[in-house]
Specification:
With 273 residues, this protein is an alpha/beta fold. The chain is built from ten helices and eight strands. The chain has an eight-stranded parallel beta sheet. Helix 6 (139-155) links the parallel strand 5 (124-128) and strand 6.
């Protein structure tokens, strides 16, 4: 089995880019946010992603409200999701326990703001393999961004186990070899840092395609085979969760299929007892 652990699931549903969530945020519908948080916690999430997707001048205030809603109904840690390092650092103290900072990248200034502030904390950090030029087309160029991130992390004594590397899997319908590139990056990162986490936004891959669930399932299996050990997804999608538990067992990460059977009995992907 090696040292593999169960997939780390980051629940994606509390995101202001989703129209129903945007409406709830605008109307301060706390019950709606609480229900989404509890739904994902009950479905097997390890973290609850929290993204406001509002103008930056009001983002910190909205995130504080969303964090309170989430923490009203679950003890799960929050994954704070914003493109602004300043906003992320402002709202960190409102979380009751360390979660994930989502995210930093190789873009100018982001690492220099987040890494020193998070260095002596228990927060995990999601790191995107993009830089000021955007998302590099080739795997080798994404690895160069990864190298710069790891050099900076080492300088602040942040261990690899606190980093969640996002290889930036692209929309399947718009990329020539997006899966191949993502898998190459995942394998390279995993070979060099066995203890690091590698995550991906699973549903991003299937945008603008019919039967998105099938694409998400296929991507999850191929990425896990390459070394993915975390995913940002909808944990209430029971068929996707079933595929993930099955893939873990098939890849030898679940001795005697004990986790698969336990998840089935708890109703994570099956009817339960």
């Amino acid at each position: 089995m090696g040292d593999w652990k169960a997939m780390i699931i980051i629940g994606e549903k509390i995101n202001g880019s989703i129209p129903a969530v945007a409406e709830a945020v605008a109307g301060r519908d706390a019950d709606f946010i609480r229900k989404l948080a509890k739904l994902q916690a009950d479905a097997g999430a390890d973290f609850i992603d929290c993204c406001a997707a509002v103008p930056v001048e009001e983002e910190a205030r909205v995130l504080r409200w969303m964090i309170d809603c989430i923490q009203d109904v679950t003890e799960l840690p929050v994954s704070l999701d914003s493109p602004s390092p300043e906003v992320l650092l402002e709202v960190l103290p409102y979380c009751r326990k360390p979660g994930l900072i989502n995210s930093v990248s190789g873009e100018s200034g982001k690492l220099e703001k987040i890494f020193p502030a998070a260095a002596d904390t228990g927060w995990g950090i999601v790191c995107l393999l993009s830089d000021d030029t955007g998302i590099p087309k080739y795997a080798a160029d994404r690895i160069k961004v990864f190298d710069r991130i790891m050099e900076k992390a080492e300088s602040y004594q942040i261990p690899p186990a606190r980093l969640y590397i996002d290889p930036l899997a692209e929309m399947l319908c718009l990329s020539e070899n997006g899966m191949e590139t993502a898998a190459e990056v995942i394998r390279a990162v995993r070979r060099r840092y066995p203890d690091i986490h590698i995550t991906a936004a699973v549903s991003n891959v299937s945008f603008q395609l019919p039967v998105r669930r099938a694409v998400n399932q296929g991507f999850a299996v191929l990425a896990m085979n390459a070394g993915l050990d975390s995913a940002i997804l909808d944990p209430s999608d029971r068929s996707l969760m079933g595929v993930i538990y099955a893939a873990e067992a098939l890849l030898g990460r679940d001795e005697y299929c004990l986790e698969y059977i336990s998840a089935y009995r708890r109703g994570i992907f099956g009817p339960g007892k």
